[in-house]
Each structure stands twice: as C-alpha cells, then as structure tokens.
# Entry
Amino acid sequence: MDEKIKNPEYDNSQPENLKERQDDATDMPDGDAKRSTRTAKKKQEHTRLESRINELEANLAELNDKYLRLFSEFDNYRKRTSKERIELLDTASGELIKELLPVLDDFDRAMQLHNADTDPVLVSSFEGTRLIYNKLKNLLIRKGLEPMKTLGEPFDTDFHEAITNIPAPTPELVGKVVDEIQKGYMLKGKVIRYARVVIGQ
# Structure
C-alpha cells in the first residue's frame, strides 16, 4: 500500500488509464450521434428529393394533358375550317350552276327541235351549236351535276314536284311520272332543282 503511494509512476499511470477509458467511453456515443444525425439528414434530403420528383412529374403530366387537349382542339378546328371551306366552294359553284340551268334548258329545247328537223342545210349548220351544248353539258357534269331520271319512275316528293295529274295511259303508270315539264337536277348527291312532272292516276 505504501509502495503504491510512494511510487510516483504508479500514481501517475492510473489516472491516465482511467482518463483514456473515459475518453473512449465518451467518444462512442458522440460517433453514434453523428452517424444518426447524418442518416437523419440523408433521409430528410431523400424525402425532399422524392417530393420534388413527384411534384415535377405531376407538373409534367398536367402540361402534357394541356398540350394534348390543345393539339386536339387545333386539329378539330383545322378539320372544321377545311370542311367549311369545301362547303363554301361547293355552295358558290352550286349557285353558279343553278344560274346556268335555264341556259341548259334552252339548249335542250334547241336540240329537240334540231333532232326533229330534216333539212340537211339546217342540220349541218347546227353542228356548231351541238358542240357548244355538249361542251357545256360535260363541263357541268364534271362539276357534279347530274340530271334526274323521271319518266316512268314512281312519284317521289323528295325529287319531284307534281304539276298535275292525268289518266295513266297504262295501268303500270298509275302513281308514276308520265311526263316531264322541267328537268330536275342534282349536284353532288343533293337536289338543286326539283323535276316538274305530270303524274298518272
């Protein structure tokens, strides 16, 4: 006991060993605390980044949806305006063709009179008129004009306008068109002038 007290080396070494142990003991919790703090910070950063990614993905989905809607609306607008332009052109040409129908009627009557004429001089002089008539008729047909077939057809108010009724020449013509007063025409499948007809009864 006295040796321990008298020996300075022994006295000095004991507290240092105790101090090192105490320092080691105090270092351990600090290291764990630092690691747990770093882990917590990483988790917070990870959570923040995930939240930001989700927010950006939501914004991207919203912008993509807006783009698709806008593209769809523009495509519909383009199709609608294109269709309206075609209809406008058809309407404009339809009005012009309607104005030309009386001229076509006059040509038809002239052709009927010419076909009944037997004078060779008149027949040869009328060839120029026939060429003009055929050119006009073919031009209008290329633009979509088509004459209605009426004689012998059942009376249909969608295509015919009845002028009068007469006794049918044969039983088969009852309720059918027996004569055509004015030719009817269709333009691209639509009636632009009803045929004026006589109905058998």
